[in-house]
Amino acid sequence: MPQDVANNPLLRRLARIPKSTALLGTLALLLVAVLLPNPYSGILLLALAAVLAALLVTTWPVQPPATRALRVIVLTLLTAAALTRLF
Question: What is the DSSP code string of 11-63?
């Protein structure tokens, strides 16, 4: 575990969450956001994008370049979807 993760209690707690639980939670949040009416849907999608952006920035140094590119693409698509639902 990198030194930054070892010193940060929030990151240690996040690291203990099972990957399947994190995936299912994210998918459930995405499904709820898609089913909500437009202004609320966009706000929830932007909140999800902000959380994913924070995770992307935090894990950037330890990710291989291919994973970084994929995550940036997904984050861009999610942000674009959120903005189209807002406006």
Answer: HHHHHHS-HHHHHHHHHHHHHHHHHS-HHHHHHHHHHHHHHHHHHHHHHGGGS
CB atoms within 10 A of CB 38: 11
Single-letter code of the amino acid located at 1: M
C-alpha–C-alpha distance, residues 31 and 36, integer Å: 9
Which tens digits make up the pLDDT trace of 14-61? 888 898 998 999 899 989 998 999 889 999 999 999 999 998 998 888
3-state secondary structure of 69: helix
pLDDT at 11: 77
pLDDT reported for residue 2: 56
CA dist 84 and 21 (Å) reads: 28
The neighbour count for residue 48, using CB atoms within 10 Å, is 20
